[in-house]
Amino acid sequence: MNRRCPESTLVGIGSIQDWKWIINGRGYANIVPSPGDVVYGLVYEISDTDETSLDKSEGVPRAYVKEIMSADFIPRCDTTSDKSQLANTDQPRRIDALVYVDFKRVTESKPKEEYIYRINKGIVDGEKEGIPSDYFKKYFRPFIPAIDVDEDPAVLDPFAPELFRTET
What we know:
The chain is of the alpha+beta class. Helices cover 21% and strands 31% of the residues. The protein contains 3 helices and 4 strands. The protein has helices at residues 48-58, 113-129, 133-140, and strands at residues 9-23, 29-45, 65-75, 93-101. Strands 2-1-3-4 form a 4-stranded antiparallel beta sheet. Strand 1 (9-23) and strand 2 (29-45) form a beta hairpin. The two termini are 29 Å apart.
């Protein structure tokens, strides 16, 4: 997130009821309506500049459209710390969350090879922040094999800045 949205701040975790996380026919993540299921995610505050950058990298409006969805939200106690510290609350509050959804490609499929490393990094970050590991096991692992994210990926992220270096 820092690379695509350098001005963003992680503010907590959110969940959206009656939706499910999948890998769609393009080989990328999507959420689809699914009664009884839930989608968890990290919630960020982003600037207008970050949102414009995110729109480009997510392929709005061709690949995804932007939706405002009602989400349950549990804030972090300290948004400046690298350590997870969710607020001690029994009751999440409702927020309007910006979500990117592909309504055209809703069939489950296999992930792009370069996507596996990035999603595994996201799983590590999500668990660190308090998203239940059982959630990832149920929804992500049928699509995304576990790999060691401390090692360099076998397939590089095609958007990685180091791929654009030139020799001088």
